[in-house]
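Appendix B, example 12.
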Amino acid sequence: MANTVNINIRVDSDLKKKAEAIYSELGMNLSTAMNVFLRSSIRYGGIPFDLRLDAFNTETLTAMDDVNNGRGLSKPFESVTALMEDLNA
């Protein structure tokens, strides 16, 4: 058997419980799951999954561009009637 060491990490208790439940369904405990993760990291040469920010969709990017360039912005209205008249124009 390989020489083993202990690693102490701090995690949210709810996160730990949820992870343990998932790994239990997969037939392993948290220690085994961490070993799988670490071995995968070594084989992959880094974190074995993508880490990235969610990309904005095209509609959001277009809206951001419109705002930044002053397009499609509404003007202030003195009343609901004035707004409705402008909308119907």
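Residues 13-44 form one domain. The mean pLDDT is 90.
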